[in-house]
Amino acid sequence: MRKILSVLTAASLLALNGCATQEAVGTAVPAISDNAKSALAAAQATVREARARNALWTTADEALKAAEAAERKGDSAAVISNAQKAQDHARMGIQQLDYPVQQIKDM
């Protein structure tokens, strides 16, 4: 009886392991292009700098999140587009730090 249970348990584990392997292979996401990878890396660095200087615009953060989501889907064009927007808005936030401070009485 114990031999039968051991054989059935081993067969069950092998069957489950085979199913898990097939699922992992079936859900593979296509890789993004090298241009998309470099655009995303540049955007992440610029957003990190803007965040460190307390100059991060919410639109830059949202665009970076969209670019990272597109990377998980394997959509290179969307990664490049959103990464560029994130980088541009993060740069503008950093540049805004150099603007003169306005007070209500100045207006």
What does this entry look like structurally?
The protein is mostly helical and 107 residues long. The protein has two domains: 1-30; 31-106. Helices cover 76% and strands 0% of the residues. It contains four helices and no strands. The protein has helices at 2-26, 34-52, 58-73, 76-96. α2 runs antiparallel to α3, α2 (34-52) runs parallel beside α4 (76-96) and α3 packs antiparallel against α4 (76-96). The longest helix is centred in the N-terminal third of the chain and has 25 residues, at 2-26. The protein is elongated, with a radius of gyration of 24 Å. It starts with a helix and ends in an 11-residue tail after the last helix. 23% of the residues are buried.
Mean pLDDT across residues: 85
Tell me the series of helices and strands, N- to C-terminal: HHHH
Overall SS class: mainly alpha
Q: Name the overall outline.
A: elongated
Number of spatially distinct domains = 2
Q: How many strands? A: 0
Beta content comes to under 5%
Radius of gyration: 24 Å
